[in-house]
Design goal:
Elements lengths: L13 H25 L1 H21 L3 E3 L2 E3 L4 H8 L1 H18 L8 H22 L11 H27 L3 H14 L2 H18 L18
Antiparallel strand pairs: 1-2
Length: 225
């Protein structure tokens, strides 16, 4: 979902700073709530794990340019379910920043757009999880249908934001819209894979009950809300 350099020129890029700042402020609010609930050490440890994982997703895992952006297996719902929404948000921002600063400096001008594209769907997916996962159900007991809905919400949100930035930057010309459609079609294939990864990770967590109560893991993984 890396926005291609030049997709939005410098006269318009200010909007991404505003949206990314808003998303970061909301992530800060979630982080404060997480500290109150689980303590600062748990948040720091989970966030650092997420940063490392996100960096690997972006830089090490296979990724391919398609249309107006790149297709990545980000596993945002997996991070949210296992570690919590605040650590996942910090991990997405931090992992992306490390990758941009040290390995892809050409992506730095697009950092605000990329942060917005990753975080806003994450927050929406967290809200959806509160609606579709009953309060008496632990995450290790999610069904494929529930995992699919969460993945579709997150990946669909990413595609929608990429489309927004592409149209904002280049308009609704035939070539631009064709590239957006190509990217969207390619990216939505991730929806077929991510729920299986989610369920596989949750099944592994279910088999490792000794992690219950471990501050490195979101306690909703094992217990009801």
């Amino acid at each position: 979902m890396h926005i291609e350099p030049g997709l939005v020129d410098t006269t318009k890029i200010f909007l991404s700073y505003a949206t990314a700042t808003t998303a970061a402020l909301y992530a800060t609010k979630l982080a404060v709530d997480a500290v109150k609930k689980d303590g600062p050490l748990a948040l720091i440890a989970r966030a650092l794990l997420c940063v490392g994982l996100v960096f690997c997703f972006f830089e090490v895992a296979p990724h391919h340019p398609v249309g107006v952006s790149e297709v990545h297996l980000i596993l945002g719902t997996t991070l949210m379910l296992i570690f919590g929404v605040a650590p996942a948000a910090i991990g997405l921002m931090g992992g992306l920043l490390i990758q941009s600063v040290f390995f892809a400096q050409q992506d730095l001008p697009q950092y605000g757009m990329n942060v917005t594209t990753l975080l806003v769907p994450l927050f929406a997916t967290a809200a959806l999880a509160r609606r579709i996962v009953p309060a008496n159900v632990a995450y290790v007991d999610l069904t494929y249908g529930q995992a699919f809905k969460l993945s579709a919400a997150y990946q669909g949100g990413i595609v929608a934001w990429v489309a927004f930035w592409a149209i904002y930057g280049r308009g609704v010309g035939m070539e631009n819209m064709s590239q957006i459609a190509t990217f969207g079609a390619a990216y939505m294939t991730v929806v077929l894979v991510e729920p299986l990864v989610d369920l596989g990770v949750l099944a592994a967590a279910k088999a490792m009950r000794r992690l219950q109560g471990n501050p490195l893991v979101n306690q909703r993984v094992y217990t009801a809300a």
